[in-house]
Write a structure and sequence with these properties.
heterodimer; A: 113 residues; mainly beta; globular; B: 114 residues; seven-stranded mixed sheet; four-stranded antiparallel sheet; 11 strands; 0% helix
Chain lengths: 113, 114
């Protein structure tokens, strides 16, 4: 079945450091891919998405490129801020299968001032 | 504000009891998803409804059930509660026929079983 694997956390970085959170997926069809962010005490919010191969999603300085050849959707940011501290979830949605939205286990990010 | 409303925000109950969690989707969204988030299990998909019908089932225990009503709100019923059911329960809604659109999440219901 479909699945999402993302790097385990927690990830601790200093402010202004470069961030990469790895995400790879397994899917039988051609899913859409998403990154969600969960700030402390809140629900999940969409951060960015990509709906087909080679698409790049971007928002708030974060970027991720849909790589079909490596089945990956890694999240990157050039210069992180303390306010980026949160849990990040990679997810996929594949209507060709059963429309479940499958999430990775989440990666907790701590940014130190 | 995502437009998805979940009630109650917090719930504390004893083992063996039954509770009902409620979700109102965004206006116009026909699809509702339920997820359970616990510290060690991440975000687990429980069940999905589309326009009143069950569409997909995940790791939902037999003690749990859900339904979606004609006005599209959904309820998740948890019975014979155990300590291990303590978790954050999220509802999300989406336009089911378009996989390029994201799901919008509510703020969650934090269930504590004591």
């Amino acid at each position: 079945g479909n699945s999402v694997t993302q790097m385990e956390g927690p990830v601790t970085l200093s402010e202004e450091a470069f961030l990469t959170i790895n995400c790879t997926y397994t899917a039988t069809g051609y899913p859409s891919l998403f990154w969600y962010v969960q700030y402390p005490g809140e629900g999940l919010q969409l951060l960015l998405k990509a709906t087909k191969a080679d698409d790049k999603g971007s928002n708030k300085g974060f970027e991720a490129t849909y790589r079909k050849e490596t089945t990956s959707f890694h999240l990157e940011k050039g210069s992180v801020q303390v306010s980026d501290s949160a849990v990040y979830f990679c997810a996929l949605r594949d209507l060709n299968r059963d429309d479940k939205i499958i999430f990775g286990k989440g990666t907790r990010l701590h940014i130190l001032p | 504000d995502s437009g998805v409303t979940q009630t109650p925000k917090h719930l504390i109950t004893a083992t063996g009891q039954r509770v009902t969690l409620r979700c109102s989707p965004r206006s116009g969204d026909l699809s509702v998803y339920w997820y359970q988030q616990s510290l060690d299990q991440g975000l687990q998909f429980l069940i999905q409804y589309y326009n009143g019908e069950e569409r997909a089932k995940g790791n939902i225990l037999e003690r749990f059930s859900a339904q979606q009503f004609p006005d599209l709100h959904s309820e998740l019923n948890l019975s014979s509660l155990e300590l291990g059911d303590s978790a954050l329960y999220f509802c999300a809604s989406s336009v089911a026929t378009d996989m390029n659109t994201e799901a919008f999440f509510g703020q969650g219901t934090r269930l504590t079983v004591v």
